[in-house]
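User: Is it possible to get a 3D structure for a protein together with its bound compound? The compound here is iron/sulfur cluster. I've pasted both below.
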Amino acid sequence: MPSVAFYTLGCKVNFYDTEAMWQLFKQEGYEQVDFDATADVYIVNTCTVTNTGDKKSRQIIRRAVRRNPDAVIAVTGCYAQTSPAEILAIPGVDLVVGTQDREKLMSFIDQYQQERQPVNAVRNIMKTREFEELDVPDFAERTRAFLKIQEGCNNFCTFCIIPWSRGLSRSRSPESVLAQARQLVEAGYKEIVLTGIHTGGYGDDLEAYRLADLLEDLDKVDGLERIRISSIEASQIDERVIAVLNRSPKMCRHLHIPLQAGNDAVLKRMRRKYTTAEFAEKIRRLKEAMPGVAITTDVIVGFPGETEEMYREGYAFMEEIGFAEMHVFPYSKRTGTPAARMEDQVDEDVKHERVHQLIDLSERMQLDYARHHVGQVLDVIPERAHKGDEEAGMIMGYSGNYIQIVFEGSESLIGQLCQVRLTEAGVNECRGELVAVTESAPAQLRTASVV
Ligand code: SF4
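Assistant: Yes, that's possible. Here is the predicted structure of the complex:
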C-alpha cells in the first residue's frame, strides 16, 4: 500500500485543506503515516502569513527531503502560491501546487512519477472566481466537524498577505454546504464549525443569498445540534445575522470577532473597515440579542506607528468591551505588504512588553467571563478523556459559549450533548458536574435524561 505523510502549518483553513487532500489519497488506496516515518509522498501545506511562516515552511520541506530523498515531495498552500520559484529552488522538491487545483493533486503526482521533472502547477489566484469543492466527510477529531464555506478575501488590510495567497472572496454554493452538513450529521457529528478565510463575506459573490440565509438553512438541518462560526468580521455582522443568531437555538453563544487594534488611528492605518465606536456598537447589539454571548478576538500589538498613548487607549477599549478571550500577536513584518514598508516600526522590546500586558488582561477577562457562569447549566459536548485524569474518569469538552469544562463522566459520553453545571471557574479550564445527557433529536424536540 503506498503511503503519504502530511505536515500542516498555519490556520484552521489550511488544516481543513489538508484533511481534504487526505481524502483524495485515501480514495486512491494510500495509507497515512507519521511525518517522521518513511513515506512515498510527503505533502507540506505551507503558511505565509508572516516571514517566519515562510522560514518554517522551508525547514519542514527540507526535513521531508532528508527523511526520504526518493519520495515525491509536494508543497502546497499559501507560501507555495506566493513563491513557487523559491520553493522549487529547494533541492528535492518535485511538485508545487498553490491554494487551488488541489482536486488535481493525484494527476500532478502521476505526471511527476512518469516524467520525473519538477512540476510547477501554480496559477494566478487573482483570476479565480470559483470556490474549489473539496469534501471532508470525517475528521480525526470525532466531536466537531469543520465545514469550509468560503475562500479568499477582498479586504486587503495593510499588514496581510492573505488576499494575494488565497485570492478574492468566493463562496461555496448553498446546496453544496447543506449537502455536506447533512452528510456530517449522518456521520454522527453534533457540531459544525463554519470556516473560511473571511467567513462573514459568505454570499458576497452570490445572487441574493448571504450568510444569514445560510445560517437559516443550516438551522433546519435535522440532527445538527450546534453551529459555530469560526470567525467573523465586525463589519459583516448585520441585523439579519444578529436576528438568526438570536432566534436559532443551534447557534453557539460564541463569536470570534477580530478587533486587531483598539485605537482608530491604528485601525485606519491597518485599513480595517470599522472604527472602535462601530465595533463597540456591534458588540452591544450582539450582547443584547444573545445575553451571555462569549466574544473572543485577535489583537495585533505594536503595529507601525502605535504610540504608547494609542496602545493605552486600545488597552482600555478592550477592557471595556470585556472579551471572553483575546489571541494576542506582536506585529510581524510581512514582506510585500504596505505595513512592512511603513517607517515608524515599533521596537521589538516594546512590542513584547505590550503583548505580555494584553495576555494578562485576556486571562483576567477570561476568568471573569467564566465566573459569571458558575452555577449555570451549560450544553457541553465532551471531546476526550481529560489528560492526566483518565483514571479518575474525568472528561473534557466545550460549552456552546466556548468554556472548556472538565467533569466526571464515562468516555461513552464523548460526542454526546451533555448538560453540565459549572462549579468552578478557571482561566483556561473550568470544573463542572454532569446534570443530564440530552437525547439526539432536533433542538426544539430535545428531551433530557437526568443522571
Ligand atoms: S480581513 Fe484583512 S486580515 Fe483578514 S484575511 Fe482579509 S486582508 Fe487578511
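The longest strand covers residues 377-385. The domain at 377-446 is CATH 2.40.50.140 (OB fold (Dihydrolipoamide Acetyltransferase, E2P)).
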